[in-house]
């Protein structure tokens, strides 16, 4: 994949995105026992992309930092486009669920959309799933049952199966998780 070059402007945009996401998610916590600050999640997704996926495409990494802002805060796609450009806004659009739809519809759409998503969106989605699945392996979120956790793993594998052929390193890391959950041999 052609990866745009990093320079002082892209580094500035990346740090601007990290700050933007931190401000937008400032009052949010993950649903784990430690109530981890939510910003750890998008930063962790970007870290997975660079450390495990060897992805250094600044548009992908910025989109990773912003991937939950529209879904979980008052951020709009227009705001992201104005601040970070159309390409990054489009990646974020591709990975954002429409919260006006019922939960099961959103989950089914994630499975279907995974097949036709752009490569950049697929990268963000792979790293996001890997982060979330590892989180679930570490502990059960508050108000979750073991059955719900098990169903999440099964659903996430369906999404990931439709993202395959994007980044072998991330897919291999996901397969380790799926093997541990006995979803693959």
Automatic annotation (TrEMBL):
Documented EC number(s)? 3.1.7.2
Pfam families, A to Z: HD_4
> Which InterPro entries does this chain map to?
HD/PDEase_dom (IPR003607), HD_domain (IPR006674), MESH1 (IPR052194)
The entry's family comment says: Belongs to the MESH1 family.
Domain annotation HD: ranges: 38-133
- Protein name (record): Guanosine-3',5'-bis(diphosphate) 3'-pyrophosphohydrolase MESH1
**What keywords are assigned to this protein?**
Hydrolase, Manganese, Metal-binding
Q: Which Gene3D superfamilies does this chain map to?
A: Hypothetical protein af1432 (1.10.3210.10)
The enzyme's first-digit EC class, named in words, is hydrolase
Q: Does the keyword Phosphoprotein apply?
A: no
Q: Would I find Zinc among this entry's keywords?
A: no
> Per its Swiss-Prot or TrEMBL entry, what cofactor is needed?
Mn(2+)
Q: What does this protein do?
A: ppGpp hydrolyzing enzyme involved in starvation response.
What reaction is this protein's catalytic activity? guanosine 3',5'-bis(diphosphate) + H2O = GDP + diphosphate + H(+)
Q: Which GO terms describe its molecular function?
A: guanosine-3',5'-bis(diphosphate) 3'-diphosphatase activity; metal ion binding
Species name: Clunio marinus
């Amino acid at each position: 994949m052609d990866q745009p070059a990093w320079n002082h402007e892209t580094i500035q945009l990346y740090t601007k995105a990290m700050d933007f996401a931190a401000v937008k998610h400032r009052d949010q916590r993950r649903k784990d026992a430690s109530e981890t600050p939510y910003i750890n999640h998008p930063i962790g997704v970007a870290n997975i992309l660079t450390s495990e996926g060897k992805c250094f495409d600044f548009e992908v990494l910025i989109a990773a930092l912003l991937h939950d802002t529209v879904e979980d805060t008052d951020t709009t796609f227009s705001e992201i486009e104005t601040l970070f450009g159309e390409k990054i806004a489009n990646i974020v659009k591709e990975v954002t669920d429409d919260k006006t739809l019922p939960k099961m519809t959103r989950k089914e759409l994630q499975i279907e959309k995974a097949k036709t998503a752009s490569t950049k969106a697929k990268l963000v989605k792979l790293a996001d799933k890997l982060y979330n699945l590892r989180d679930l392996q570490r502990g059960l979120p508050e108000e979750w049952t073991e059955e719900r956790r098990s169903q999440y793993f099964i659903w996430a594998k369906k999404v990931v199966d439709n993202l395959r052929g994007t980044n072998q390193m991330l897919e291999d890391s996901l397969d380790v998780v799926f093997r541990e959950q006995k979803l693959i041999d």
